[in-house]
Specification:
This protein is mostly beta strands and about 375 residues long. The protein has two helices and 23 strands.
């Protein structure tokens, strides 16, 4: 029987990390102190992008809840995508339905984020096997097998920001069983405290006939994954995530454009931290108590994926990247579970999860 999740990380075999399934709703993590201080958001995208100010409330354990206050004169309806990103707002979508949702969201006021709730742990490991040299429509550098990741990873630049939009996918499974699916973007791989992983996204899980949808964020390995909303998240909601990691500066913003809620969190580390030149947009299944579980089937579509840092705000597909496909790994890759499609001109792509897979002991993948 599967147990608790542990935080996502990248281990000695290039690994990645992430979050929870058995959510311990740690009874009220109360705001210990309110630091009524505002700081200029100088680390945001583009110095000339009408940068906002950021108010911070201390939540304890080196975590701050954030509120973005737009620059005077900033007009989201006429702003560029870079200016929107600098003000923690999603890019302008093209589909009529999403555009109407976006307009309501960007013109509404935004309040201070509530403090997140620490969860039980999940581990997320990406096993770097030999590249899979098979034909694929993606103009990527190479392909890779993973026991629990499917998506794209940008590399070969100094990335400090990953941005994405997507609709909350459906949780899917069979009666009486457990299936897990996480959708997120991130900066870094979490190899060490010096080179952590900043990430945020949504879980869409089928837990023995109960559907569970949660927004979460994490800076691994510095803090455990933290749930930020498990009540007002539903299938089909339009989600925007901006993950940031630069030298000694880590934060994640998650917006549910459908409900009008934005959550922002930063973490103050006790030593120097750095990004490791990767940005990623991933669908995954977690390591739960040393086992990879069955994954929740279905299609997940990133309607946009962008990165910036030493490069300007750019579509993921216009940057050096490689892609990864998810496989069962007992005695080798015996069943493909999920794979990404081609990246379009807006940086968007779909990940197709065609098989549930089987519960697999994670250790079995160490020599895959």
């Amino acid at each position: 029987m599967l147990g608790t999740w542990r935080p996502r990380r990248r281990s000695s075999t290039p690994a990645r990390a992430r979050r929870v399934v058995a959510r311990t709703a740690a009874a009220g993590m109360v705001i210990a102190a309110i630091a009524a201080m505002t700081t200029p958001a100088t680390a945001k995208t583009n110095a000339d992008a009408l940068a906002p100010t950021v108010a911070r409330h201390y939540c304890g354990n080196n975590v701050y809840a954030l509120q973005t206050i737009p620059h005077t004169g900033f007009n989201p309806l006429t702003a560029t995508d870079a200016q929107l990103a600098a003000n923690e707002l999603p890019p302008r979508p093209t589909s009529p339905g999403d555009l109407a949702t976006w307009k309501r969201f960007v013109t509404a006021g935004r309040g201070m984020s509530t403090c997140p709730v620490a969860t039980t742990n999940r581990t997320h490991v990406l096993h770097d096997s030999a590249p899979a040299v098979t034909p694929n429509a993606l103009p990527a550098q190479y392909a890779e097998h993973s026991p629990n990741w499917a998506g794209n990873i940008d590399d070969d630049h100094y990335y400090t920001n990953a941005y994405t939009t997507f609709h909350v996918p459906a949780a899917d499974g069979t009666s009486g069983a457990y299936y897990y699916k996480s959708v997120w973007d991130g900066i870094g791989q979490g190899d060490s405290y010096a080179y952590p992983l900043a990430q945020g996204g949504v879980d869409a899980d089928w837990l023995s006939n109960h559907l569970s949808y949660c927004l979460w964020w994490e800076l691994y390995p510095w803090n455990d994954s933290q749930d930020v909303d498990c009540t007002n998240v539903h299938y089909g909601d339009l989600i925007y995530v901006h993950s940031h990691l630069s030298h000694n500066d880590a934060w994640v913003y998650i917006s549910n454009e459908t409900t009008g809620k934005t959550y922002g969190y930063s973490y103050t580390a006790s030593q120097d931290i750095w990004p490791d030149n990767t940005a990623e947009w991933i669908v995954e299944r977690p390591d739960i108590s040393g086992y990879y579980p069955k994954t929740s089937k279905g299609t997940v579509t990133f309607t946009s994926a962008h990165a910036s840092g030493s490069v300007s705000y750019t579509d993921a597909g216009d940057l050096p990247h490689y892609y990864t496909t998810m496989w069962n790994c007992t005695n080798g890759p015996d069943e493909q579970l999920a794979y990404p499609g081609g990246i379009d001109s807006s940086g968007g792509y779909s990940v197709y999860i065609q098989n549930y897979g089987t519960e697999t002991k994670a250790d079995a993948c160490s020599t895959w």
